Amino acid sequence: MNNNNKTVQRVVKTAIIAALYAAITVALAPISYGPIQFRVSEIMVLLAIFDPFYIGGLTIGCFIANMLGPNGVMDIVFGTLATFISVYAISLTGKFVKNTKVSLLVASLWPTVFNGLIVGWMLYYVYEFPLLLSIGEVAVGEFVIVTIVGVPVIKLIQNKYHGLSVKYN
């Protein structure tokens, strides 16, 4: 396959990931935005552990979802930043933690930490919600979706499609 075809494939894959993230988030808007967020699309952030290539599509998808959401410019900037930092940390976890079972669990905690702090602060700033409550609510939503739901979903996919493994290992 020549370089032009590889470039086209990468652009198409990035667009598909971004579109899926944004579409799932917006379709489930009542639970995707606000102080208690169960953003089901966040399960997809775990893809970054398998290949850092997914960072771009996930970040773009979050950006689009936040543009279409109710929280305005602050969410577009800070919510997208939180997702970028989370998926980058997930990617680094795949690179540095060589045990796949441990790395997936550790990686799943980054969105809880970064989105909890950054998005929790943003909700405090925009809506004057209590700071610690905002951080806690966002963190709990991320933990439920990414760690409790997402990790088993990814493990099921790994069991079904044996070729899905961490690229760094």
TrEMBL record:
Record field: transmembrane: 12-31, 43-66, 72-90, 102-127, 139-157
Keywords: Membrane, Transmembrane, Transmembrane helix
Name of the protein in its database record: QueT transporter
Organism: Clostridium saccharoperbutylacetonicum N1-4(HMT)
